[in-house]
Amino acid sequence: MGRMCDFCGEQRSMVYCRSDAACLCLSCDRNVHSANALSRRHSRTLLCEKCNSQPAFVRCVEERISLCQNCDWMEHDGSSLVSTHKRLNVNCYSGCPSAAELSTIWSFILDFPSAGDSTCEQGFGSMSISDNSMKNCQGRPENNNGQDAPVVVEVNDVTDMDKLGVWKGSSSMRQLNIKSHNVGQPAVSATATSPKICCARTKVPRIGEDDCFYEDFDMDEVDLNIENYEEFFGVALNDPEQLFEDGIDSLFGMKDMFGVDSNYQSACVAEGSSNGLVHGLQPACSNPASADSIMSSKTEPKFCLTRQAHSSLSFSGLTGESSAGDYQDCGASSMLLMGEPPWCSPCPESHASTTRSSAVMRYKEKKKARKFEKRVRYASRKARADVRRRVKGRFIKAGDAYDYDPLSQTRSY
DNA sequence: AACTCACATCATGCCACAGTAAGCA
DNA sequence: AGTGCTTACTGTGGCATGATGTGAG
């Protein structure tokens, strides 16, 4: 018996909404996400049928089960016979697709239950699958290497790819590639559009900050503003009290500059926090020398010292007895599996200053554009707030005159 | 260099009300 | 221990407002 719908509590949940962090049955999914234009944009996907708590990542054809990244990893570990199972990407969707459209998105589910009427409430109408509202949740290009991926995401150009979050190189993708699973390789070369720092041979895609897989990660819970990149690039730091935390920030600042997903940063810091990593000056990483590495990187700022500290952090996120699920949304695993971090390749000295300035510039741009989305803890409250009428932004009593109605954008006076 | 001003950005509080937790019988 | 009721608290989004930061003169 699967998990019950978080909204009605009566039907078995089938889809997972990341924005709401909620598991919903198809009926409630339609009801909740037809409430207004914003909720219609929520990206949803199948619910993992094994853990019933995470968004599905792939569909195992042999086992006829949808799995999240963690469960997929455990089920199809390379050492096991089932690692050869054929698996299909599970796509995200938004809007209010009909049962038929959902069947198209997830064509591998033959017994797809009907969700009832296909038309959205409030006359919104269903959103066409072809309108780019549907996207690959893992940011993977579809249907490559002859894999019969359920839906082909049409991308007009590179810009559109970025907008869609298509092939932004999520950790999940890289893990599958590395493990040589049956899930396809990217048809679109990431190197064509992905900026890299003096490591042209690296074929690692840039990790997108807007990767939908992480979109509801709560950045508010951990203050991760990176303010110390200047120091990292050459200004000595004299305050040992601040040294370690700034080192963490700077590390992540480096990561951020080179395009690594900010959620990796937050996830790893969160993980570190749970281990007393951030708040105490405990050794940040699995080996005691790691913190010292960070320290030394501060007093003698060089790129390769950053790498040293980085790899230590990666290990801290992956070693030990922790469940792999703890890192499911953390790019750390892939970062580790990729081996050499892309920015650590030896660079000709003549390019160093150019590289650094461009990295700083890109980092600043990215920092400027960064979004700190908050996590919605109670989807039902959000749903109500989304449709509640207001006067100057304030909620009003039911029946009172209003100046803003999220549903109709009209005024009562 | 110090100051003022204008503008931009950020943080906070407010509102109604359903849901939740705690306390009590 | 379990049940039912009451009460207090929480969280949700858009807007207004004050605080803060920044650059020009």
TrEMBL record:
Domain B box-type: 1-47, 43-90
GO BP terms: regulation of DNA-templated transcription
Domain annotation CCT: ranges: 356-398
UniProt keyword Transmembrane, yes or no: no
GO cellular component terms, semicolon-separated: nucleus
InterPro entries xrefs: CCT_domain, CONSTANS-like_Bbox1, Znf_B-box
Compartments where located: Nucleus
GO molecular-function term, one example from the UniProt record: zinc ion binding
Family the entry assigns: Belongs to the CONSTANS family.
Alphabetized PANTHER family for the sequence: ZINC FINGER PROTEIN CONSTANS-LIKE 10, ZINC FINGER PROTEIN CONSTANS-LIKE 9
Protein's recorded name: CCT domain-containing protein
